[in-house]
Every structure is written in C-alpha cells, then in structure tokens.
Design a protein that fits this description.
Elements (H helix, E strand, L loop, with lengths): L2 H25 L7 H31 L4 H27 L5 H25 L1
Helix pairs in contact: 1-2, 2-3, 3-4
C-alpha cells in the first residue's frame, strides 16, 4: 500500500468514525440505553480518536520532524495513537463509573509509558 493510499484510507475512515460518533451522541439516550449503546459510543469514539491521533502523529513525525522513513513513522504513530485512544476511553469509563481521579490517570499514564518503552526496546533488539 502506498503512503498516499494509506493516508486517504485513514482520513476517510476517520471521517466515517467521527460522523458515526456524532450520530450516536445525538441519537442514543445515555439514561435509557443498554450495553450496546455504550459499546457503540466507546467503539466509535475509540476509532475516531485513533484515526485523528495516527494522522496527526504521522504528520508531525514525517513532515515536520523528518526523522524516520514513512513506514517507520506510520508504525510508530499508529502504535502511539492506539495507546492514546485507549487512555481516553479508559479515562471516560472511569469517569462514567465515578472512579476517575488524578491518581488513577497518573498511574495509567505511567503504565502506558512503561509499555511504550518496552515496545521500543523490543524494536531496538530486532535491529
């Protein structure tokens, strides 16, 4: 897949997920929905945040910094976007269950940072 095809597909999929998230927010009533409404809400938000973060991360990494090859920049930005999107969803789930605190978020960020450093060390060992 070429870089242009990847970016086109990623932008198109992100726009669809953002539109789907907008529809779910306007149509689904959070007070009367079941687990399916919440699952659709969190899944569409996860995919929209993942797409936006992956595109922004790639643009920053490849266009502005110019440190990596395109393939490497795509892989790194997608991995970090996945972690950021997962952090956003977990934070919203904690908030919905009234378990949100700055300590919990701090511990999640520390845990995700350790995971990212571990994944970076695995990538460096493969070279």
């Amino acid at each position: 897949m070429t870089l242009r095809a990847y970016l086109t597909l990623m932008i198109f999929a992100t726009l669809i997920c953002a539109a789907l998230f907008g529809v779910i927010v306007t149509v689904v009533d959070p007070l009367s929905t079941n687990w399916l409404g919440f699952a659709l809400f969190y899944a569409s938000l996860f995919l929209a945040v993942l797409g936006v973060a992956a595109i922004v991360g790639f643009v920053v990494r490849f266009v502005i910094l110019r440190k990596h090859l395109a393939v490497r920049a795509v892989i790194i930005s997608f991995r970090q976007a996945f972690l950021v999107a997962f952090l956003v969803i977990v934070a919203l789930m904690l908030l919905a269950n009234r378990l949100f605190s700055w300590l919990n978020i701090f511990l999640l960020i520390i845990g995700f940072s350790i995971l990212e450093f571990f994944l970076l060390s695995l990538n460096n060992d493969e070279r």
